[in-house]
Hints:
Blueprint: E1 5-9, H1 15-30, H2 36-48, E2 53-60, E3 63-75, E4 80-90, H3 99-112, E5 117-122, H4 129-137
Amino acid sequence: QGMPLVIRKAELKDLETIVDFNARLASETEHLVLEKSRLEAGVKRFIEQSSLGFYQVAEIDGEIVGQIAVTYEWSDWRNGLFWWIQSVYVNSSFRQRGVFQSLYQKTLELAKSQSDVCGLRLYVEKDNETAQRTYTKIGMKETDYKMFEVDFVLDRAIHN
């Protein structure tokens, strides 16, 4: 098995790796090239401003091999917060080794330990069948919702 996997909350020292992973994620899943300075500022603000959410990273022998982000959505129907899972990325050399599953399990445990969290949600690219199978395998269910947006920053028109 090798070195143990350590899951911990991300800190500013992890900024460069998280920026790199997010750039790779955008490229691999949506064929987008993100503006590095904007991405770096966004990750830095997210790490520093806990009201926005948090990142967790998975480390093996001090090397970050995966990440998961959580943002918050208030549900008045449930009088609780949904934790949205975002920015899921595992370094390609470490895929299929349980890294995501460990990140998800830790997030699930954390969520369940908070009295005001009512559930976990995530969205996935509609063509990303590998990810969809993974999410189903860990016990998540597809919902009846479709996603709509108005994006003031990224122009996705070229993908339609």
